[in-house]
Every structure is written in C-alpha cells, then in structure tokens.
Amino acid sequence: MQASTQTISVPAHAEAAHEEAGFWSKYVFSTDHKVIGIQYGFTALCFLFFGFCLMLIMRWQIAHPGQPVPLVGPLLASVLGDNMAAKGIVSPDLYNSFGAMHGTIMVFLAIVPLAFAAFGNYLVPLQIGAPDMAFPRVNMASYQAYVLGGVIMFFSFFIPGGAAQAGWTSYPPLAEAIPTEGQTFWIIGMVFLITSSLLGAVNFIATVIQLRAPGMTWMRLPFFVWAQFVTAFLLLLAFPPLEAAAVMQLMDKVAHTSFFLPTGLAVGGHLAHVSGGGSPLLWQHLFWFLAHPEVYVLILPAMGIVAEIIANNTRKPLWGYKSLVYAVLTIGFLSFIVWAHHMYLTGMGTRIATFFQTTTMIISIPSVIILTCMFISLWGGSIRFNTPMLFVMAFLPMFGIGGLTGLPLGFSYSDIHLHDTYYVIAHFHYIVAPGTIFALFAGIYYWFPKLTGRMMNEFWGKVHFWSSFIFMNLIFQPMFAQGMAGMLRRMADGGANYSAARVPGAIGGLSDSIMSLHTYILWAAVGLALAQIPFILNLFWSINNGKPAGSDNPWEATTLEWQTPTPPPHGNFAQAPQVHRGPYEYSVPGHATDFTPQNQPD
Amino acid sequence: MDIPYTVQPRPDTGLYNAKVGIWLFLASEVMLFGALFSAYILLRVGAEDGLWPHGWLNIPVGTCNTLVLITSSITTVMAWASCKMNQFGRFKFFHACTLCLALTFVGIKSYEYHDKFTHYEIALNDGKIADGHFIENKLQLVNGAYTGYALLKGHVVTDRKELFNLREHPAKHEELRLEGAQIKSLDNYGPWHHTYLAIYFTLTGLHALHVIGGAIVIGFLWGPGSKLWRTDPERFTNRIEISGLFWHFVDLVWIFLFPVLYLL
C-alpha cells in the first residue's frame, strides 16, 4: 500500500518540478513536435533574414561596383579584414562567397527548414490526429544537427580565406581549386544538414504511415499532409547521393583523391599535383540528382499551405482533391528523372538531353494540374480577403510566372542562350521568393492564432503584403530583360566589363538601359527590406498584444489542428480523435454551419 | 495521449513504428551506397585504357572477410530468434559471437588497409618503376633529392601498365636494394594514388564505419541495454530486430562490395 502511494506521488512531484525549472528541457532540448517546429521556424527565419542581408550587400556591389557599402561597410572591413573588404568595398572574392552562401543559406538553412521542418513538424501530427511525431528524440536530434550545420556554415565566413566561393552548386574542379578551407566547412556543414533532413524525413513518413487517427484514411488526409509526405520522400531518397558526393569532394579536399579532378588539370597555369582520372561531370550528376528534387522540396510544402488556406477562405471544398493528390505523387516520382536539364551545356550529348527535355516537359503537366485545381477552387467561392488569403492569391500567378518562364530553360536549344544568365535567376526566384516565401508568410498569418491564441494585426499584414508584392516584382521582372540581353550571373561587377559603355561598339555589349536596371533593382530590394519591418514587428508584438482569437478555431476550419485546445498541450488532443469525413467539408448543404470538422460525427 | 504502436504493430500496416523507421532509413542508405557505386561505374568507364587496376586486392583475404560477415548475419538472426523463444542466455551467446565477428572483420580490414598504405610505387630516374613493400627504409629527402638506401620486397617494371594488370603480370616478390640517387619520387597506395583506390577507400571506409556503428549499437544492447529484457522483453526483442535489420543491410553492402572491388 505504502509502495503504491509512493509510485503515484513521485511522478506527480517530478512533473511539477519539471514544469517550474525545465527551461532547457522545455525550450531547448524539447522532444515535443510543436516546440521543435517553433525552434525550426525561428532559426530558419533568422537565416532567411541573414541570407537576405547578404543579397542586399551583393545588390549594392552589382549596382555600384568598387564603391564602399553604405552603413555596413566599416563593419565588413573590421570583421572580414582587408583581404575581403578593404575600406568597406566588397572584393570579388567576398562577392563570390556571399553569392555561394546566399544560395546555400536560403535553400538549405532557410526555406527547407521553414517550409518542411517548421510547418511540417507543427502541423502534420496535429492534422492527422497524432499525439506527436513517431520518434520524438530523433526529431530533436534532427533539429540539433540542423543548428550544428548552420553554425558551421556561419563560422566559415570568419576563417582565413573566407566562406565557400564556388556557388551553392560547388562545381569542381573550381570548388576544390579555390584556396580557402571555406569549401571544407561547406561540405561538413552540408553533411550535418543532410543528416538533419534524413532524420526528419524518416520521422515524417513513419508518422504519417503509423500515427493517423482512427478513421483518417489516406484519401481523408489534408492536402498539406500529402505535400509534406511526398516532400519527405524526396528528401529521404535524393539527399543521400549528395551526401555521397560531399564525402567524395571532402576526400578530394582532405585525402587528395581525384574523384572530380580530370587528368591533366591545370590550376593557376601549373599542372595540378593530382593522380587525375576523375570526372567533373560526376559531381554535377550527383549534385543535381539531389538539387532538382530539392526544387520540389521548396515548392510542395508551399502548395500544401496554399491548398489549406484556399479551401478555408473560399468556404468550399478544394476542387479536384484526388487530382491534386495524384499530381503531387506524380511530381514526386518524375522529379527524380529530370535532373540533367541543368546540364545541357556540359557536353553530355544530345541524346541524353532529349530524354531529359522530354521528362522535363512531362513534369510540367502535374504542376499545371495543381495550379489549375487551385485556380478553379476560387471559382464561385465567397472569398474572404484576409492577409493569408492575399498572400495565397498572389502565390498563384507568381508561381505561374516562375513555372512558365522555366519552359524555355527546359528546352536545350533555348537554354543555350539563357543558360547561366539573370533570366535563370529571375525564373527560380519567382518560384521561391514571391512563390514559396509568400506561401510561408500566408501560413504564418494563418496558423499564428493556433500557436498563440491571438491574431496578427490585419492592417499591418495588408501593408506587408502589398509592399512585398510590389517590390518582389520590381526586383525580379527586370532580371528577365537583363538575362535575355545576355547578362551572365555571378559577376562581381554586375557585367560592367561587358557593357557597351566600357567597350564601345562591341557586338552584344550590354546597353546602358540594361545596366541601369541594376540601380532600380537595388532600391527595390531596399524597399523589400523595409516592407518586412511591419511583418517582424507584427509577429513579435502580436504574441502578447494581438487581438484574442476568441476561440480554438477562429477561421472556422475543418481540419483537425483547429479542434485542439490553443495552444495544443503536450500530447495535443484531450482524447484520441475519431475522424468521420474528408478534410474540406465546407458549405455542405443541410448543415447548421458552413464548415464541418473532420472529427464531427454524422 | 501517448504515442501509439511503439511496441505493438498497427493493425492495418502490420508494423510497429521503429520497423517503418528502419526500413525508410535503409532506403536512404541504398541511395547513399547506390550513388557511390554509380561513381565507381563512371570512374571505371572513364578510365584510360589499361589504367584501371585488376588484382590489386587479395581475394582469399576478402573471401575470408565475406564469410565472417555472413556468419555474423546468421548469429544475429539466432540472437533475435532466441529472444523470441524467451531464451535470454542463448541470445547473449549469439550476440557475443556477432560482436566477435564484427571485430574480426574490422581487424582483417585494417590489415588490408595497412598493406596498401605500406605499398609503394617508386619512380626511378632511369624511367623504370619499382613497386613493393619496404623491408628497410633508410631514405631521406634532402633538398628535393633522396639520399640513403632502401631494401624493397617487390619488382621493377618498365611499363606502368604492367602494375595495373596483376592478373596477367603477377607481381614478383624479390628483394631489391634501391639507392637514394636512383629514386625520382615515391607514392604509397593511399586514396590519392589512383581513383580506384580513392573509391576503394571511400566505399570500404564508409562501410567500415557502418560496421563499427552497428557493432556499438549491438554491443550496447548486449551489455547495458539488455537490462530492458527484465522490464519489457517485447520492446527489447524489437530493438534486437531493428538493429539486426541494419546489420543485415551492412552485410548486404559488403556482398556487393566484394565482387565489385575484388573480383571484377
């Protein structure tokens, strides 16, 4: 008897102590999927901001090559030294490493962790009616590996020689020939980030397969869960080849092997002291085998967010739910066999190029199906134009522009002209910046009341939306023109050496009007930076001071995450939910309300 | 709410969570090693005529190591079956065997590595190439030139390609004395020596890390981790199954590595 009272009192006491003192276990070493989701979200937003700042400095250098950077110039000079930023002027080496790290940070440390890990961690278990992820401690390890990878990437800026300089693609032999250990840091950082993605992907897939609530059949999953599920498979299967490639490049750097170094390689005018026999193309194949699916890792979670918000704010079911599911599965499969469309100009041969052109055109079909379903979903709905919906409505045409401008890059003959120009930059930024990032903003505004019980401010949300929308387009539209005029990317002087002003009369020189677009883009980028101030203030101010949401389900949504207490407690649901219906039963005739939650019995 | 299906299988999938997890993890491992095998194919296809080595590895030693790993797979299954049959003592015995076999594998592998790192290809000033292991090495590098002497167990060839096809030109093991003045440069058979050795060391090194990692997990479950048997035997048996699946995968990788690197 005495023993049993002891066993009851001990855990209760331990729990009380845990509640009071457990800052570390509650916020830092947490195994709760919601806390990990917020950790991922916060860290990724910080990296997003950092990557954006790198870009601002680069835009200054492009518009005003060789002039000291205003405001942060002295800081750059004192932190990075005279080799990199003497008198606050961005050196070509520094420009290269900012370029490489902007790409790396935005893709691997900002967007994927935000779209997949943050939103996915917080929402997938809630939406399928699960108490947590299948492997909570693996989840924690995934976040820790991500932070470690991020720290290694960040510190590589401060080593002698600076961070990696060979682009986010790190093509050898260039990547291995540049005399900085930044590349080694990059590789080791990537290995941690790959590990993190891998652990996350295993966890997501196992969670969706195993932990769906009773009644949550596959065709009752919200589209967001489907998108995350496919994304997880892409990460699971596409990242390991890059890990293999990273290991080989690390061997090249550290053990002086020649995986990617051909026979007869000359560096700086001298024959390199290597055994040779390696293949630079091998790296490109392995890199793009990851990096093309990675493009879909960037966009699919955003499409999932968009689908949820469209259904909620049009107050009607998504049009073509099954088509959407099959389209996303098709994209997932096809994304593994389109990678070499990044490599038309490598001389890999026209037969191979033909195969990859064909698959590239085929993969645009499911993408168009998804976008069309979403457009048709708007038809006849009584749309609520709140901030999340505005971002989502902007996502659709922006993603459309990004997608359609990709077609000329998918054909090898038009790619010859456009390859490696600003056109490419404009194309993929339309997909990721006003595309994915807008969807992420929409998601933040939309799910904020579930995290905090308060709404974000609508007025400042709309200011944020309209200003971001305008400046995004002002930044990226001119780049199409620059690219088509033949301006190459990755030039530290913004193409000044190829301008008609520098070389009068040269055929194909960049005209003054094309060059002057740099200045407009710079100020549009500054405008975009200012446009984020209302968002940042709104985000933090609303945590404690926003308008109370009033209920656990302020948007009157149907999916399960809104049927929990706010914020959801550890374990999420008071009792195991039973699912009775599909995810989007809005405006069902004969029902008392215009939304019927998934767990509401008939 | 607690997380369901941590021990008992979910009725519609027939699997408990960790089993889904390990299969997914192994799928990613297939892609990891798959990429390295593809790299092997590309490097081999792209190699210059006659400059891809044959017969550089010792087949009897490799065969022996293959048998060691296959046996360890059997003892792993027996260990799991013993848990299922509620025979904890037999489990302890079989997994002790697994651990010993794992150590044996790593030991034999390090012997092979050592043999490569002490194997030198020596370019001589007369254009010939000496190749073999040092018996005694009194060479010193002074101002870019070698002085002293070395006793080498190996042979001298005129065409470098003879070193690449040891099946047609078996290496002779004669004792040679080399004077420092004869030697232009020397290079041991590390990963930097040739892309074949690069892929050999990378693939087998990564595989050896998997063996060591697996051995640490199995060692933990055999030692301190086996306390769980007393409180929750079913969960413990699941852990043995999961670690066993990983172990079988590691064996399977070797089953591919052995013919690709030793026999082809």
Write a concise synopsis of the structure shown.
The complex is a heterodimer of chains A (about 600) and B (about 260). With about 600 residues, chain A is mainly α.
Describe this structure in words.
The complex is a heterodimer of chains A (602) and B (264). Chain A has 602 residues and is mostly helical. Chain A is built from 19 helices and two strands. Chain A has helices at residues 2-21, 23-28, 33-63, 73-80, 82-85, 92-127, 136-155, 174-177, 182-210, 223-254, 280-314, 321-334, 350-378, 387-404, 407-410, 412-418, 422-452, 458-484, 512-545; strands at 266-267, 270-271. Chain A has a two-stranded antiparallel sheet with strand order 1-2. In chain A, 53% of the residues are buried. The model of chain A is unreliable at 1-18 (pLDDT under 50). Chain B has 264 residues and is α+β, with helices and mostly antiparallel strands. Chain B has six helices and seven strands, in the order H-H-H-E-E-E-E-E-E-E-H-H-H. In chain B, helix 2 (59-84) runs antiparallel to helix 3. In chain B, 34% of the residues are buried. Classes of the chains: A mainly alpha (602), B alpha+beta (264).
- The total beta strand count of chain A reads 2
Please give the count of helices of chain B. 6
Share in β-strands of chain B:
15-25%
Between the first and last Cα atoms of chain B, what is the distance in angstroms?
56 Å
Mean pLDDT of chain A: 93
Estimate the strand proportion of chain A.
under 5%
Strand order of the largest sheet of chain B: 6-5-2-1-7
Radius of gyration of chain B: 24 Å
Query: What is the 3D form of chain A?
Result: globular
